[in-house]
Design brief:
binds flavin mononucleotide; alpha/beta; two-stranded antiparallel ribbon; eight-stranded parallel β-barrel; 11 helices
């Protein structure tokens, strides 16, 4: 018998496969489907502040208020209407599933993060995933200022929350190791590497913007794989992998690299959520074949920190003598 159980953010998971945040988890039925299909935990669809602001704006339009105080008042109503459904989702998901339920929050303005986060905690979320995404477009704004914006959010949440939280980020930082350890030092229990954002495309016939393909490809796993292998054991918090995990080999590779948990999303759309069971079976079979009885027997075995050849993780160029191809 092999034991798939593991720990992530201090939570006990029956297995390391987490059904990641997406619209599959915007209803209790969806959350339950992923839990019943064997996920170790489920991350809910993010609560987006932008969405709430739009709701509030439409409320103010309807009421035809031009007055600033009235706007502020109605904005608050809008904000409490939006989360109300989300809070209900957390409460019902907690009631109907036995796996940990992780709420997800995306906000723009720092004071709001703490306000919403404590509501999600009070509704019973086991943990929070902070979907933090700032797209830098201003050539005058330097990277330290942008990173400081993320870190202020983390600090505020650490002051406010009793439940653990992880920060889900994209891969575009000049010194990812430094940034990740700062996030951990300011109080995050975990990092989710990486978010795969909405892809922007261009329609050359209609000469306008268009949405790109929304699902990942299995080849995209190389990015989180390298970074988890480099960061594992070094940044002071758990690492969950996200992006490009489409099969059990992907799950195994990321655990070997040092991930505490592995999130899946696109593959659940492409192959149905029941596919989680197949991922688990593949992991279990591989563990048996290799004589591993628990996840900790092999987790992080191929991280850079303990590697005999740490330089191999840092190779970026196709130099034949090192990588065998040119
Ligand atoms: C349709 C769709 C909706 C998503 N919604 C969210 C979301 O609300 N919050 C979030 O943090 N990530 C969201 N994601 C990103 C996924 O959680 C995941 O990080 C990303 O798709 C990469 O993982 P994958 O390769 O397994 O798909 C969404 C992805 C898809 C495809």
């Amino acid at each position: 018998m092999v034991d798939l159980s593991t720990e992530y953010l201090g939570l006990k998971l029956s297995n390391p496969i987490i059904a990641g945040s997406s619209s599959l988890h915007k209803s209790v039925d969806g959350v339950k489907r992923s839990a019943d299909s064997g996920a170790g935990a489920v991350v809910l669809k993010s609560l987006f502040e932008e969405q709430l602001a739009l709701d509030a704006a439409s409320l103010t339009d309807q009421a035809s208020f031009g007055h600033a105080e009235a706007y502020e008042y109605l904005s608050k109503i809008g904000m409490s209407l939006g989360p109300r459904e989300y809070l209900k989702l957390i409460e019902e998901a907690k009631r109907s599933c036995s796996v940990p339920v992780i709420a997800s929050l995306n906000c723009i303005a720092p004071p709001r993060w703490a306000e919403y986060a404590s509501q999600l905690e009070a509704a019973g979320a086991d943990a929070l995933e902070v979907n933090a995404a700032i797209l830098p477009t201003n050539p005058e704004e330097d990277s330290s200022k942008i990173e400081e914006r993320y870190l202020r959010i983390v600090e505020k949440l650490a002051e406010t929350l009793s439940i653990p939280f992880a920060v889900k980020i994209g891969p575009y930082f000049s010194s990812l190791p430094n940034f990740c350890s700062q996030i951990a030092r300011r109080g995050a229990r975990g990092l989710v590497l990486f978010n795969r954002f909405y892809q922007l495309d261009i329609d050359p016939e209609r000469l306008c913007l268009a949405p790109g393909y929304r699902f990942s490809f299995p080849e995209e796993i190389y990015l989180p794989l390298r970074w988890i292998a480099i960061l594992s054991g070094r940044v002071g918090c758990d690492l969950a992998a996200s992006t490009g995990v489409h099969d059990s080999q992907g799950v195994i590779k990321l655990l070997l690299a040092g991930a505490s948990a592995v999130q899946v999303c696109s593959v659940l759309y492409l192959k149905q959520v029941q596919y989680i069971e197949k991922l688990k079976q593949g992991l279990e079979k591989w563990m048996k074949e290799h004589g591993f009885r628990s996840i900790n027997d092999f987790r992080g075995k191929l991280r850079q920190q303990t590697a005999e050849d740490p330089e191999a993780y840092e190779r970026l160029q196709y130099i034949k003598v090192f990588v065998g191809i040119e």
